[in-house]
Amino acid sequence: MREIPAAELTRIVKDLCLKANTGLRPDVLEAVRASLAVETSPTGREVLEQVLQNAELAASEKLPICQDTGYVSVFIQLGQDVWLKGDIAEAINEGVRQAYAEGFLRKSIVARPIFGRENTGDNTPAFINIDLVAGDKVKIIVMPKGGGTENASRLRMLPVSKDADAVKRFVLEMAENAAKSCPPVIVGVGVGGSFDKVGLLAKKALLRPLSDKNPDPQLAAFEGELLTEINNLGIGPAGLGGKVTALGVKIETMPTHIACLPAAIAFN
Hints:
Layout: E1 2-5, H1 7-22, H2 26-35, H3 42-61, E2 71-79, E3 82-85, H4 88-102, E4 127-133, E5 138-145, H5 147-151, E6 154-157, H6 163-174, E7 185-193, H7 195-205, H8 217-231, E8 246-256, E9 262-267
Parallel strand pairs: 1-3, 2-4, 7-8
Antiparallel strand pairs: 2-5, 6-9, 7-9
Family: Belongs to the class-I fumarase family.
Domain Fe-S hydro-lyase tartrate dehydratase alpha-type catalytic: 11-268
GO molecular function: 4 iron, 4 sulfur cluster binding; fumarate hydratase activity; metal ion binding
């Protein structure tokens, strides 16, 4: 059994929070650059150029990409042969506290969703998801999630008789919310599981690299079809019109009940 002090998570989460808030993933940067060759709207092209300039400044000056540095989602793949010794949640929250103070990142968490809504002052608690996997390794992913994209998320229990058609209609209907999410966006779609699991599937879909091809051929084709149709909506960069609304669509699925077809959509 491999032993890792939970306190080690503090350093890792702190570093990841700072990195995620000040630098775009290389695949996303490349996709934005490539979209300049596709976008025909002058306003849309100007928005894309500003996105790239903003990303360059944020990386060089170590400043937030966006003023909304969001809440912190932490995804942990925990090997079954690892013992994280100590208080895991507290170690993660301490990393968030340190990062949001040191990086001058906006603190956006309120302790009570109703009757008060007082800010916790340090952007904790983080929202922690742990999956048990084989082996003696631990993988940690940090996703800061802004309020605009979170408010655009949707979940619906669909009729099972309509199958993929129902999912497609739902995604295209909800894709209108991309205008509220500072497009171009990445669209995560979750299908299956249960009411409480499908939103997490949609969010996990956002973690996949843009170059990642779905191993299921039908889902891979469905992702491409949805991407084309979302970009045909004409929402465009910053919602000001154009061809580039989404940089990618990623779908994650899991088994579900015979009477159920849960679906959820999330935006980056």
